[in-house]
Structures are given as C-alpha cells and as structure tokens.
Design a protein that fits this description.
Oligomer: single chain
Low-confidence stretches: none
Strand content: 25-35%
Number of helices: 2
Length: 182
C-alpha cells in the first residue's frame, strides 16, 4: 500500500511509550468540501503528526494547515483564507471489536481523519470581512462598491398615511419654534 497519508508504524507497534513525529506536505488529488468554500484539488496541506504507541493501539495527534478558497456568502467576492485544524484519534490494533480506525499492515492511513477535520473546519457562511454589507437587493451591485447614490427604502403603502402625519408634525413643530423665537 502506498499513499501520501500512509505512515509506517512497524517500529512502535506494541511498544507502549514509544513515540515518533512526522512533518510532511501533501498535495490534494481531489477537492475536499462541497460548499461555497473548499480545499481545491492540487492545494497543499502541511501536516505535523505525533504517533504514540499505547496498549490499545497507536494514538495519532496533529495539526493540518492549508488554505480554503471560494466566494463570500454575502457579496460573492472571491476569498481565500488560511485554516489550521487539530485532530486526534486512536488507531486500534486489529481485534474482535470493530473500530473506525485500525492499524493495518504496520501502517496508519490518516486521509479520512485529516479530511474530516479539515472539511468540518470550513465556515458554513464565509464572509470576505466580518461587516460585509453584501449585495444591494434592488440593483444587485456590491454595496462595498456602491456609486454613492443612497436610495431611500421603499415605504409600504399600508404605512404611507403615517408618513404624511409625521411630515405634518414636523412642519407644525418647526412653525411653533419660529413663533417662539420672535
């Protein structure tokens, strides 16, 4: 078996207390993630891993760093952000109990573990900046690139009668203020 996520553990299998560290970079063969942001095919992940032999199996702890790309969920601008995820899992020795992760042929395969951690760290509603105003609902233009012509929000026709009352009150108050000054 061969692959970028396979790590040999032959020298530490069934030797509790033994530990090995590995640092490597993996180029993704396929896209990870299906939302509006993802890790693209060909992007690189930097992985730092610690393999520790324990009585039950091999404890894998580590971090993966990469960059996701996609579009802002509000204004649809292209974004790319770095992400760092931590992961930890016990790869059990083969036995009677069925487990999700097992030591197989004196190696551990980290692909599923790293993919799950990385994809779950992707934001559900990514934004280009925390206060991104999004798109104008009328024109469809990005509000961050607005021409500066502010449009008043349309008034619901059911409330338009109240607008007339506030206009009359404003005129009455300004007239009263002018009389007091004279």
């Amino acid at each position: 078996m061969n692959g970028p996520f396979l790590l040999p553990v032959r020298d530490i299998v069934r030797h509790p207390g033994e530990m090995r560290e590995h640092a490597f970079t993996v180029s993704l063969a396929e896209q990870w993630g299906e939302g509006i942001v993802s890790f693209e095919s060909g992007s690189e992940l930097d992985i730092d891993v610690r393999l520790e032999s324990v009585h039950e199996g091999i404890l894998v702890s580590g971090t993966a760093e990469g960059e996701y790309v996609g579009v802002c969920g509000r204004c649809l601008t292209d974004i790319a952000r770095p992400v760092e995820v931590e992961f930890q899992e016990l790869f059990a020795y083969p036995g009677e109990e069925e487990t999700d992760f097992e030591v197989q042929d004196d190696h551990v395969d980290l692909e599923t573990l790293v993919r799950d951690a990385a994809v779950l760290s992707l934001p559900f509603q990514p934004v280009c900046q925390p206060d991104c105003p999004g798109l104008d609902p009328v024109t469809g233009e990005r509000l961050t690139e607005s021409t500066g012509s502010e449009q008043a929000a349309p008034i619901d026709p059911r409330w338009s009668a109240l607008q007339q009352i506030t206009d009359q009150d404003g005129a009455a108050e300004s007239g009263a203020a002018e009389k007091e000054e004279s």
